Amino acid sequence: MRSPVFAFLLAAHLAAAQDAGPILVADQTFKVTGVDEYAFALAAGDRIDLRVEMLTGRQLKEIEFFQYPNYPILRDYAMDQVLERTFTAPKTDVYMLRFKESGSGKKVCRFTLHRTPAGPETTRMDTRVTWDVKKQPQYQIARRKVAAGVKTELVSLGGQVTVSGSQMGLKNAVNAYQFTLPPHTVRWAYRIAVGQAAAEARKKDADKLAQMLKTTAVRAAPVQPETALAAFALGMAINLTTSSSGEDVEYALLDAANTPAFFDKGEYQSFIHQKGVSVDVQRRSYPLEGTWFFALRSDNWVQAIDVHIDIEAVTETPRYVEELFLEPVGR
Fold this sequence. Notes:
This protein is mainly β and about 325 residues long. Helices cover about 10% and strands about 50% of the residues. The protein contains four helices and 16 strands. It has helices spanning about 195-210, 215-220, 230-235, 260-265; strands at about 25-30, 35-40, 45-55, 60-65, 70-80, 80-90, 95-100, 110-115, 140-165, 175-180, 185-195, 250-255, 270-275, 280-285, 290-295, 305-330. The strands form four sheets. A four-stranded antiparallel sheet has the order 1-8-3-6, with no helix packed on it. The chain has a four-stranded antiparallel sheet with strand order 2-7-4-5, with no helix packed on it. Strands 9-16-11-14 form a four-stranded antiparallel sheet. The radius of gyration is 32 Å and the shape is elongated.
């Protein structure tokens, strides 16, 4: 006699709340070997659709479907080719499908079992019975939180920093822009642009995004980007504007501990260091959390420069839902 079988195609415990139709619980093909039993957890009010088909051989001796341990729901004898039945689960409990055969011929069966929940409160259910109910006949109804994917969002950060001129070398022409990446950031992109070049780059990139938004690839994205930089952060193949002409700036992406060394022209560690930048765009997969600085230095001897910083962070926040399941008492 087989113990409860786990090798089913189980979709009930993964399916989101739905009204679209039946949820597949099991799709199993097996060779009949005397007595074969399969156990499932089902919820009160579930409409159960059972289909059994003989793939090899004829006339299966007996089929039973019952609420464990002995409440009968279906019994059929001498099934020839196909059996199809629909019934309702009377309570949230363990149910068993049993096949009996005493003949010596080779017989192969396939059965499918679907459940249509009575309401949204029982839609998400783990229909597996992962223990031997004959050895542990006492069990209880429980609920738990399970992962149900992620919620993808775009978080926009950014601002403007003024870096003074060096006043003919009399002043240290530095400044820094501080920012904190939002929780659950998985990647992010930034644009650093000096003065009027920022507005020009945004305009050019907006035109590129308008063309890209006409494509299927963008429409299929987990979240629709409102800016070209957001599309770039999402990983889309958009060629954003960069430039080294005109007024420029030197910058480094670093932490608080290394910022003073940048200011003092000492040794420091940074994630990226660029010189002669009028417009620069980068996509980052690290760092992904914490507070960071864009340290900035101007080589303009007289005039201050305005540095515009745009940041788009892609976040993936885990989603959890409540799931119904059965568990043995005293496990």
